[in-house]
Design a protein that fits this description.
Aspartate Aminotransferase, domain 1, globular, 15 helices, 16% strand, 11 strands, 355 residues
Length: 355
């Protein structure tokens, strides 16, 4: 079946062939479950080679699980979590971090999806006052939900401020590989060296079938994680099927090749859309997302050919995502379909345009 690729999400892509091969390679014999297998140990050591030998690494099913269990482990129910209003934990996780931990999620409006020390400081109210939730975790996303990036200096400055104020910093790294490619830096430079305390390391959006890694840069914080992971139903019994995927992703820089390609395809789409009359590109393109405003009538018609999400229903801003398996032909055919729908709208009688 020849189905056009969507531009909705990097969750919609298939699985990279080398990841599928890794799954097949461990699909033999019997191995102890719940992570007590040699394949899980290999994957953990690969992460330690990338991020430092003193980290603690745990594997979970999905990104919401990684974010939720990490936050749950280091908080008490009277704590609060500070994050941007656009963050995944605030918008797209159905309240899971707050429900699991009992914490209040305090969000801050920010135009670029990024937190600064000044924005965090504005939320540090009622410290030590028993009637107020006590801030404990600052959660950021790299790259952000708006496709923006924290520079290494911004990360260091933010982490230093948070630590000076007894706050932990959690990074939602659902698209951490895309961020590392865009910044031309290593994972260690972006996390360990900047002072990140907790990391949700994404794999699903970069060619894996399922699975994320929950990482602690301060081992003492991880003491109770395994219990919270079990309680939150994120402990995979046949753990080797997650571990093997990460080993494949972290071998021969497959993570880099996948993310570099998806970023490059977004840049191509960004460039081509600049030549399309009738739309407005709304944000710079740094990683694998492109944002634009389309005429309202065009959106549902184009979605029937190439599915994508409306980012802001009030302004008709949409988001196009590229993936490791997006091709130049996919981009060209999509832009052609967009031009056709724009031309169709312009040729329709005014009475039809008014509905």
């Amino acid at each position: 079946m020849n189905i056009p690729k969507s531009f909705a999400s990097d969750n919609n892509s298939g699985v990279h062939p080398l990841v599928l091969k890794a799954l097949a390679d461990v699909n033999h014999g019997h191995y102890t479950g719940y992570g007590d297998d040699p394949f899980t140990e290999v994957a953990i050591q690969k992460f330690r080679q990338l991020l430092g030998k003193n980290i603690e690494v745990f594997f979970v099913y999905n990104g919401t699980g990684a974010n939720t269990v990490l936050i749950n482990t280091v908080t008490r129910s009277y704590n609060s979590i500070i994050c941007p209003a656009s963050s995944h934990i605030n918008v797209d996780e159905c309240g899971a971090p707050g429900a699991a931990s009992g914490c209040k999620v305090e969000f801050v409006y920010t135009e670029d999806g990024k937190l600064t020390p000044e924005l965090v400081n504005s939320m540090l109210l009622g410290i030590g006052f028993e009637h107020h939730s006590q801030p404990k975790v600052v959660s950021i996303t790299q790259s952000t939900e708006l496709g923006t990036l924290y520079s290494l200096e911004e990360l260091r400055t933010l982490c230093d401020f948070c630590h000076d104020n007894n706050l932990l910093v959690h990074m939602d790294g659902a698209r951490i590989a895309n961020a590392a490619v865009a910044l031309n830096c290593t994972f260690k430079e972006m996390t360990t060296d900047t002072g990140i305390d907790l990391l949700s390391f994404g794999g699903t959006k970069n060619g894996m079938m399922f699975g994320e890694a929950a990482i602690f840069f301060r081992p003492e914080l991880a003491a109770d994680f395994k219990y919270f992971r079990k309680q939150n139903m994120q402990l995979h019994s046949k753990m080797r099927y997650i571990s093997a995927q990460f080993s494949a992703l972290l071998t021969d820089e497959l993570w880099y090749k996948n993310a570099r390609h998806s970023n490059d395809m977004a840049q191509l789409l960004y460039k081509e859309l600049q030549n399309v009359i009738g739309i407005k590109i709304t944000r710079p393109c740094y990683v694998n997302s492109v944002f634009a405003i389309l005429p309202e009538k065009v959106i549902p018609r184009l979605q029937q050919k190439y599915f994508f999400y409306v980012w802001d229903e009030h302004t008709n801003e949409v988001r196009f995502m590229t993936t490791f398996d997006t091709t130049e032909d996919d981009i060209n055919n999509f832009v052609k379909a967009l031009n056709e729908e724009l031309g169709r709208q312009q040729s329709e009688p005014a009475s039809l345009l008014r509905g």
